[in-house]
Design goal:
By secondary structure, the protein is an alpha+beta fold. It has one domain. The protein is built from two helices and six strands. It has a six-stranded antiparallel beta barrel. β3 and β4 form a beta hairpin. The protein is globular. 10% of the residues are buried.
Length: 88
């Protein structure tokens, strides 16, 4: 099975990096940066304005620039069976 990867931006340097997604829900995305024993987990939560997700890895803020609504649509598209099981 292929790991899902998303691109996040490090706000301090405006650098874009690719991270592996551990779990993805509209209210929270859990990602891993790095591989092996040097990996670091991070929880991305929706921002106050709801336009992105943000989290912190070793004191640096990272941002995933998609809204919770866009993530929900992505999840519904990837697995239509989940849409039927969730209440609307």
């Amino acid at each position: 099975m292929d790991d899902e990867k998303i691109k996040v931006r490090i706000t301090e340097s405006d650098q874009v990096i690719e991270v592996v997604v551990l779990s993805k829900r509209p209210e929270r995305i859990e990602v891993v940066l790095g591989t092996g024993i040097h990996n670091v987990r991070c929880e991305l939560l929706p921002t106050r304005n709801g336009r992105a997700y943000s989290g912190s890895i070793k004191g640096r803020e990272i941002v995933y620039e998609r809204t919770p609504e866009q993530v929900k649509v992505d999840l519904d598209r990837l697995n239509p069976a989940l849409r039927k099981s969730r209440p609307h």
